[in-house]
Amino acid sequence: MSKSITCTRCPMGCALTVEEAGGILAVTGNGCPQGEEYGRSEYICPVRTLTTTVLVTGGAEPLLPVRTDRPIPKAMLFDCMELVRSMSVAAPVSAGQVLLENIAGTGANLIACADR
Ligand code: SF4
């Protein structure tokens, strides 16, 4: 089995191919060692940083940009978005403030990206 992955560790964006045979992963197409590590981790458990907005009550602006403070498993993005969609925060909020700890059991916190 093989998978094509674009490395996002730097602007070069190398086109990686990860092939699995007999439980061994082989990464090709990487321009540096970081790409091999990235390809392996994306093949085994792809992760993404969740970025979105939440509703703000009592503030001058209705939406607050938020993100997780670390990447979360891609498979958990939908569950986390459901949680975020159902929440609102009361102004004032400061950039960097933790709004939700350990979102959906991922170990990541949802933090504010701006003051509101
Ligand atoms: S493999 Fe290395 S050079 Fe290529 S995109 Fe990834 S980090 Fe950049």
Describe the structure.
By secondary structure, the chain is of the alpha+beta class. The chain folds into 2 domains: 2-44, no CATH class; 51-112, CPE0013-like fold (Roll), CATH 3.10.530.10. It is 18% helix and 37% strand. It is built from 2 helices and 10 strands, in the order βββαββββαβββ. Strand 5 and strand 6 (63-68) form a beta hairpin. It is elongated. The model has no long low-confidence stretch (mean pLDDT 96). The structure holds iron/sulfur cluster.
The tally of domains stands at 2
How many individual helices?
2
Topology-level CATH name of the largest domain: CPE0013-like fold
Distinct ligand kinds: iron/sulfur cluster
Strand order of the largest sheet: 8-5-6-10-9
- Count of DSSP E strands? 10
Topology overview:
Elements: E1 2-6, E2 15-21, E3 24-28, H1 33-44, E4 47-48, E5 51-57, E6 63-68, E7 72-73, H2 77-85, E8 88-90, E9 98-100, E10 110-112
